Amino acid sequence: MLLFEKADDCGSKAGRQFYACAACRDRKQCAFFLWRDERLPAEKVRQWRQRAAGESRAASHRQRYDRARAILSEGDAQYCLTCTALVPASVAAEHRSHPTRPADTESARRPTQLLRPRVCNKSSAQYLFSPDTVAVLDGVLGAAGVRRVLCCGTPRLHEHLLSAGQRDSLLLDLDERFVRYWNRGVKRGRDAAPAPLTSGPPHSTGWNEMLESGG
């Protein structure tokens, strides 16, 4: 949440301040809103607590990852673009009218190519790096001797770094879909958990040391 301020059309006169979601510019996407000078109503407190409790009961990162791995291990899985979900072969008929893509453990290594990018410009529009851009960034990191990379909203770079196995990578992203495909190295909100869905090169666990040292 951030503190915002309303202004006149010219932007010269300061107005009333309020708290709102920093990620969404559409109240339909995130309804949080509070005037800075507002006395918080008890009913609003109750609603927020109720919503927070519901979110805390949602499946954990590990549970969603394990569920995806189980579906892929059965074979002949599909990814439904309408439902944004992995679909096991046993229920594929229920998604017959939806556009789907074949999904297996190999394609799960590259979820940015499996998932359809989001296009909502007011909250979560995604613009993915091209392969050439990823190669340039990887080259810059290599030339600088970087060993640990914090990828903020750059899942395709994170995906490449995990696949290459030469550097540790931690992804911070608003898109909750990625937690199904990486059991480590993804952080969304309070979720934390670096390795691709299938086995790959081991990664060090020195993130705490890096953050504490500031480097």
UniProtKB/TrEMBL annotation:
MF (Gene Ontology): rRNA (adenine-N6-)-methyltransferase activity; zinc ion binding
Location(s) in or outside the cell: Cytoplasm
Name of this protein: Zinc finger CCHC domain-containing protein 4
Gene Ontology CC annotation, any one: nucleolus
All residue ranges annotated as the GRF-type domain in the record: 1-39
Gene: Zcchc4
UniProt KW Magnesium keyword: no
Cited PANTHER family: RRNA N6-ADENOSINE-METHYLTRANSFERASE ZCCHC4, ZINC FINGER CCHC DOMAIN-CONTAINING
Pfam families: N6-adenineMlase, Zn_ribbon_GRF
Keywords: Cytoplasm, Metal-binding, Methyltransferase, S-adenosyl-L-methionine, Transferase, Zinc, Zinc-finger
Region described as Disordered: spans on this chain: 190-215
UniProt cross-references to PROSITE patterns, sorted A to Z: ZF_GRF
InterPro entries hit by this protein: Mlase_EEF1AKMT1/ZCCHC4 (IPR041370), ZCCHC4 (IPR039846), Znf_GRF (IPR010666)
